[in-house]
């Protein structure tokens, strides 16, 4: 505590005013001169350890609360100034600290106003989505971060890039990968680009999956990755060289608004290109149809991971040679949606993914198990969903592992073409159908035990004499 200077003039002034004390009276209580207290209140002198202890004993001030108060407000102000509308005016930490210290009540007011703004924006977005689904166009242009823009653009279009597929087929014919794709790619990189691929231990590469050293012409891959992810990283590097022109053309077609959004989208296109190399379109589609889209069979056939097969299944949208129109979304344990694409934007525009009744949230309790279910939205449309956990890079002892869940889904009308339909008892009679919603704010299902928020579209019906099982009763 002695090494850290604490300037808390505004809070000392507030403590004094709350007790209706003059500076002379408070200075006498604390055993200091009124002029010194005046300097403290103007943040021209820090609080000493002795003064902090004196404040605690004389005025029963919680020292932890005294020090944490600024920290919580400071964190809130950092969030405010991370808003894209204010990104160009982001002050340094010291300026935010000055605001917290000099005007804590004003800072708290700014936070309340910002939270109200965020809530209003969220509700407008929910209402906009609902009106679009009902065929009522509503043009809203909320400020978006580059990552949000990329996710929305990819979710609105079929997850299929024709030029990348054609180039991947051509590249695969050139590679002739009888000994495996990873070996063939390493040989091509060495032969055509003089690039050597090396796998490095976690201690040498603690923060990177893949790193290319332009000076030594070496591509380093982390040993923390599974063998499947190592192959994908090598394929992404090769695709960035071989498919540079077509990836650039597909990137321009996305019509993104910023350089940062384009950089993020380019990474997604490189990952798509790597999957196209690892699972060539025609052989993969034919194998998927023969295996009735059994993911484990396809994993073994193409020597890839569950996550890679799931992503590839969403891309079977070639005109004249389509597969099932799958959609995909990935969430983490906090419920954050990390990826969503496939089937013309289905997960975002029509299937918000925020219903807690979906098996995608239950999958965390059943690691590496497939959870299949047939769900029905309030408008009676039904879908088959398959959820399973995905393990992140290998962790060391004491490290927190990364675990997310992928949910793969398709329209229930084609569910019988998949092997998973046989696991859904009573599918034909509808007894195994789970009623879900788009999101609590838009769902009007009565007496839902999982409801987290009341619907925007219905008035609340709170009655002191009657209490339902749902957290929110509505008319």
From TrEMBL:
Residues 12-66 form the HTH cro/C1-type domain. Coiled coil: none annotated. The keyword DNA-binding applies. The keyword Transport does not apply. CDD domains: HTH_XRE. One of its GO terms (cellular component) is cytosol. InterPro entries: Cro/C1-type_HTH, HTH_RamB, IrrE_HExxH, Lambda_DNA-bd_dom_sf, ScfR_C, TransReg_Diox_bact_type. SMART domains: HTH_XRE. GO terms for molecular function: DNA binding; DNA-binding transcription factor activity. Keywords: DNA-binding, Transcription, Transcription regulation. It holds the Pfam family Peptidase_M78. Belongs to the short-chain fatty acyl-CoA assimilation regulator (ScfR) family. PANTHER family: HTH-TYPE TRANSCRIPTIONAL REGULATOR (PTHR46797), HTH-TYPE TRANSCRIPTIONAL REGULATOR SUTR (PTHR46797:SF23). This is HTH cro/C1-type domain-containing protein. It comes from Pseudochrobactrum saccharolyticum.
